């Protein structure tokens, strides 16, 4: 039996906040592996400058390559429609019945857990491990109390910040792994267009 941390996200692009969170969880919970799972269609997020699936996968593979316990799993990219976590969990449990799964979640998402698809079923299938994010509250819902909160240095970085900096011509050095910085540059990702692309969690 392996203990596996699932880290779902848009990763548009992956940044050092993601990697540090994953590494801290790996060590604190003595996990064997972390699987980074890029979403196909973010269920509750609108993004007007979402890089292609291929670009996001390439950046994620590059970002995680140096860590032998980090892996990229593209299970959600093979599914049509919103990438609901409950569907992913059911697939993974069927594929790997002996393994134990944890799901990593940033603090900003925790207060929205009640709105997740079939959350009561999901919370029985997987243990959520969360971390606070600067400027966001984890809320007081019954689901928040079930998330295991990890104490670790908070990283005030988001993919939105990275995209905005690229649009403004500012450097992103040391905010993303070198390989991500290079891919963003080579493929001209997030370059200025008419509007600045923010990802926003949709109002419920
Ligand atoms: N700096 C960070 N520290 C801890 N968790 C984070 C951090 N950035 C993102 N996360 C968490 O990682 C998961 C995937 O995040 P996602 O790919 O949407 O990145 P993001 O930076 O929140 O993106 P965006 O700014 O585009 O909304 C989410 O659970 C999110 O809360
Ligand atoms: O299943 C849901 O209803 C659901 C709602 C919101 C977010 N999620 C998952 O949470 C992860 C982080 O989402 P995001 O939008 O911050 O990239 C990603 O794996 C999403 O599929 C899942």
UniProtKB/TrEMBL annotation:
<keyword id="KW-0808">Transferase</keyword>
<comment type="pathway">
    <text>Cofactor biosynthesis; NAD(+) biosynthesis; deamido-NAD(+) from nicotinate D-ribonucleotide: step 1/1.</text>
</comment>
<keyword id="KW-0662">Pyridine nucleotide biosynthesis</keyword>
<keyword id="KW-0548">Nucleotidyltransferase</keyword>
<comment type="similarity">
    <text>Belongs to the NadD family.</text>
</comment>
<keyword id="KW-0520">NAD</keyword>
<dbReference type="InterPro" id="IPR004821">
    <property type="entry name" value="Cyt_trans-like"/>
</dbReference>
<keyword id="KW-0067">ATP-binding</keyword>
<feature type="domain" description="Cytidyltransferase-like">
    <location>
        <begin position="6"/>
        <end position="165"/>
    </location>
</feature>
<dbReference type="GO" id="GO:0004515">
    <property type="term" value="F:nicotinate-nucleotide adenylyltransferase activity"/>
</dbReference>
<protein>
    <recommendedName>
        <fullName>Probable nicotinate-nucleotide adenylyltransferase</fullName>
        <ecNumber>2.7.7.18</ecNumber>
    </recommendedName>
</protein>
<dbReference type="Pfam" id="PF01467">
    <property type="entry name" value="CTP_transf_like"/>
</dbReference>
<dbReference type="InterPro" id="IPR014729">
    <property type="entry name" value="Rossmann-like_a/b/a_fold"/>
</dbReference>
<dbReference type="InterPro" id="IPR005248">
    <property type="entry name" value="NadD/NMNAT"/>
</dbReference>
<comment type="function">
    <text>Catalyzes the reversible adenylation of nicotinate mononucleotide (NaMN) to nicotinic acid adenine dinucleotide (NaAD).</text>
</comment>
<keyword id="KW-0547">Nucleotide-binding</keyword>
């Amino acid at each position: 039996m392996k203990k596996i941390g699932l880290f779902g996200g848009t990763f548009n692009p992956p940044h050092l906040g993601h990697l540090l969170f994953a590494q801290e969880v790996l060590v604190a919970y003595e996990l064997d592996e972390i699987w980074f799972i890029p979403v196909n269609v973010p269920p509750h997020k609108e993004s007007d400058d979402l890089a292609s699936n291929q670009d996001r996968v390439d950046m994620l593979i590059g970002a995680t390559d140096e860590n032998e316990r980090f892996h990229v799993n593209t299970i959600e990219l093979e599914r049509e429609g919103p990438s609901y976590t409950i569907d992913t969990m059911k697939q993974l449990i069927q594929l790997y019945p002996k393994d134990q799964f944890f799901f990593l979640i940033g603090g900003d998402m925790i207060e929205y857990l009640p709105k997740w698809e079939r959350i009561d079923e999901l919370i029985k299938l997987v243990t959520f491990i969360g971390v606070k994010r600067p400027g966001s509250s984890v809320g007081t819902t019954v689901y928040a109390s079930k998330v295991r909160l990890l104490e670790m240095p908070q990283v005030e970085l988001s993919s939105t910040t990275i995209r905005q900096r690229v649009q403004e011509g500012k450097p992103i050095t040391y905010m993303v792994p070198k390989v991500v910085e290079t891919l963003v540059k080579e493929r001209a990702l997030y370059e200025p267009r008419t509007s600045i692309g923010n990802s926003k969690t949709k109002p419920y």
